[in-house]
Amino acid sequence: MTAIVEIRGLRKTYDDGFEALKGIDLSIEQGEILALLGPNGAGKTTLISSICGITVPTGGTVSVGGHDVVRDYRGARAMIGLVPQEITLEPFEKVIRTVRFSRGLFGKAPDEAHVEKVLRTLSLWDKRNARVIELSGGMKRRVLIAKALSHEPRVLFLDEPTAGVDVELRKDMWATVADLKAAGVTIILTTHYIEEAEAIADRIGVINDGQLLLVEEKAALMQRLGRKDLRIELQHPIDAVPEMLSHYGLVLEDGGMALTYTYDTQGERTGITQLLSDLSGAGLVLRDIQTRQSSLEEIFVGLVKEGTA
């Protein structure tokens, strides 16, 4: 794959001395969905603002499609669509005119076919003549995306795109993002919703305290850092873990009716076969066995804790 966004040694220090970005290096591939995860104040929005030309970096370089965002900001900005966190729309303007206006701001010639395509992709065509004030919160966010796509950008930034949106609309938005990717748009999103990244991202970036802790393919990250729990339900309750099983680190749960064994998915041996044999040797009768993979949220929390330790 070809990188469409190249970031090298990016730094941002504000006048009061606060260092929001501390030497970020990142390559974003053409046509991928990259999710940036991080707590409040981690530097996510500052990073996006620096790439989009809203904030001027104090060090390092950023290029979009080969255009330096400082030296050739017009060329870089023309390739970028940005959907901000806040809903900033003219409330009394019609949806279709809002999108047409955004296209004109980038010096693009009128193209009713493209405007219609964007509105249909976002399920807004039936609302094209509605005033923005008449729309629901979820529809207003779709209008923001339509505005960002009006000038046919190759890179789309979504800064907390589903903040304040209910679960059903959030899933609709995920489907919309998947459709945009299928159309060849590169998408970078910041999110507080771990399940959002887990559902739609190709790669996950974890940022904290202005530093990029890692960027890795989602599946590989979960496999490398994930752990599995083996939950063993017992036929009869026990008061304590038998002494001969103490080295397994078993956790007794559900009033003595279940044991949980945690193991590394990357280990050469899981120890499960020997554990089951020893459980039988200890006189325990099993009723059921279940496994559970660590979620991305658990992995994320662990990474942030390590990064601040």
UniProtKB/TrEMBL annotation:
Residue ranges that the Swiss-Prot or TrEMBL entry lists as coiled coil: none
A Pfam entry, by short name: ABC_tran
PROSITE patterns reported for this sequence: ABC_TRANSPORTER_1 (PS00211), ABC_TRANSPORTER_2 (PS50893)
GO terms assigned for molecular function: ATP binding; ATP hydrolysis activity
Positions of the ABC transporter domain: 5-234
Keywords linked to the UniProt accession: ATP-binding, Nucleotide-binding, Transport
Alphabetized InterPro entries for the sequence: AAA+_ATPase (IPR003593), ABC_transporter-like_ATP-bd (IPR003439), ABC_transporter-like_CS (IPR017871), ABC_transporter_ATP-binding (IPR050763), P-loop_NTPase (IPR027417)
Keyword Transcription in record: no
Name listed for the protein in its UniProt record: ABC-2 type transport system ATP-binding protein
